[in-house]
Amino acid sequence: MTQPADGSPVAAVAKAAGAASGGVSRAGLIGISLGVVAAGAAAGVAIERLTVGRSMRRRAREELDAAAPYGSLRGRPRTVAAPDGTELYVELDGTGWAEPAPEPAGEEGRHRRAWFTRRRGTGPVDRTGLPGLLGGTGALARADRRPGRAAAEAQPQLTVVFCHGYCLNQDSWHFQRAAFREGMRLVFWDHRSHGRSERSRSYLGGEPASIDQLGADLKAVLDAVAPEGPVVLVGHSMGGMTVMALADQHPELFRERVAGVGLVGTLAGDWNSVTLGLPPVGARLLRKLAPATVKLLGRQVELVEATRRFGADVAAVFYRRFSFGSKDVDPQVVRFAEQLLDATPIDVVAEFYPAFGLHDKKTALAALDGIPVLVLAGSEDLLTPPAHSEEIARALPGAELVVLPETGHLLMLERPEEVDRHLSELLHRAADHARAVPPPALRPDH
Question: Over the stretch 320-377, which tens digit does the pLDDT of each residue have?
């Protein structure tokens, strides 16, 4: 679900707890555990210490903010109107488009590319064998111009659409955007009320937010930027729920155009059964108090935002607890997650929180049967525990289930290499599926 730990309603609860303790931060609401970071000014070394003084932690954040280019990758901007008129912010990225987004020029571009490679510590993902469906101008496409590929190249190119989680925005896919740009057609978008998208007009008009509404938004995005050709849909947390909502509303789309689906740290229903790692008594109390608490905080925007600086240290504990599953997460990644969470206003957190308890798309999973599906989970995810991913995989016997050890809710930030590798494999299978299933216009019954 997206902006802090994506996802998750839990975050909202965590924030509520922070408020009760004396000072609440926007980010605290989101429940992504970031940890408190301190950095050495000269060496740039960061260590997690709850005992470090407040001024040192503040200086550490400032240093990390200045050093990390996370979230700096950009594509060609588009604005897409949702069914209710809400303007959704969309970016087209990758060199597979007819007019690919230009890379930063000069020293800035060189620095960003070198920095990214250094932080990853690994080479690019394996693209060998990916068909020309994935793009017509990049190296990925050129590598597949082998004998017998003419028919495949004549088909529409594959487009990969990324859907972020709750309280996050499209920048949460930073590593995947960087890894898959060459030769591919990528689409990133911000959910309504999130990131650079407009605040939901229907919600401001008195209509409750819903996952179904997000599914309709995704359809609007597809119609606007990828109206034809095979697509792969990748969703994290609330983004995965959005994909399920689209499947429920338009199962024919999955029969005719969707060549693959990636469901990352998400669930098909039963959100109210999630305990957030609490003992039974605590979980019951949380479920009882959280909805009213989040609703109340959502009505006290000015108060919550004015006090957020006092709750930053308390929120840090929740960040690390609910976002990551290991203790060796790069402090700059931790800080980046904190920034994503911090950018989500408390009233937006309150806007979407009730929708998760109503989300039930188990029957909609049937629309995904028969196409390549990757179900990816973190073993230590407290917001969307792996048991929910296992349930999705049972409903889709042909799906690939991968549970990453010592990994929390923000898989794509915590374990980018592993996530990228599995997504690369999904794209291989999706490309094969797209070749095997001809476009509707070329089928005998059309």
Answer: 677 899 988 888 898 899 888 888 888 888 899 889 999 999 999 999 999 999 999 9
- Output the pTM of the full model: 0.77
How far is 156 from 287, CA to CA, in rounded Å?
A: 47
* Total length of the chain: 446
User: How does 123-134 read in b/e, with b if 16+ C-beta sit within 10 Å?
Assistant: ebbebeebbbbb
**Which domains are delineated in the chain?**
2-437 (3.40.50.1820)
Q: Do residues 158 and 434 lie in contact, with contact meaning Cβ atoms separated by under 8 Å?
A: yes
